[in-house]
Amino acid sequence: METLFRKAFGDTPKIRVLEFLIEGRELDYSISDIAEGAEIGRTTLFRIFDDLVKNKIIVLTREIGNAKLFKLNLENNFVKKLVELFDEIILQNKKVSV
């Protein structure tokens, strides 16, 4: 299903990951959870993952055994603006459809 966010920014794996993490911004996720939630393959996620970490868009929050958990970096100015834009698009869309 194509969301309004994907219509606006394109339906790419990176946008799918960002959308998933923005929607669940208060939670942290394993790599498998991110891939599943974003509806992309793990291999695809691994291709873009280093870029997201390097640019501090996502950050490591904790390790449980061998599993590493990550979440959206809400301290990053780019992420803050993206979240604001996401909320504005989604909230505006919900007001229109009510």
Question: Can you offer a commentary on this structure?
Answer:
The protein has 98 residues and is an alpha+beta fold. The protein has a single domain, classed as Winged helix-like DNA-binding domain superfamily/Winged helix DNA-binding domain (Arc Repressor Mutant, subunit A, Orthogonal Bundle). The protein is 60% helix and 13% strand. The protein has a two-stranded antiparallel ribbon. A hairpin with a 2-residue loop joins strand 1 and strand 2. Helix 2 (13-23) packs across helix 3 (31-38). The radius of gyration is 14 Å and the shape is globular.
Short description, anyone?
This protein is of the alpha+beta class and 98 residues long. It has helices at 4-9, 13-23, 31-38, 42-54, 77-97; strands spanning 58-64, 67-72. The chain has a two-stranded antiparallel ribbon with strand order 1-2.
Structural class: alpha+beta
- Give the helix level as a range of percent: 55-70%
CATH class type: Mainly Alpha
Give the tally of structural domains: 1
Radius of gyration: 14 Å
Elements, N to C (H/E): HHHHEEH
What would CATH call the architecture?
Answer: Orthogonal Bundle
* CATH homologous superfamily label: Winged helix-like DNA-binding domain superfamily/Winged helix DNA-binding domain
The strand line-up of the biggest sheet is: 1-2
- Percentage of β-strand residues: 5-15%
Number of strands: 2
Number of helices: 5
Mean pLDDT, to the nearest integer, reads: 91
Low-pLDDT runs of 5+ residues are: none
How far from one another are the termini?
A: 20 Å
Which fold name is given in CATH as the topology?
Arc Repressor Mutant, subunit A
Overall morphology:
globular
**Main beta sheet:** 2 strands, antiparallel
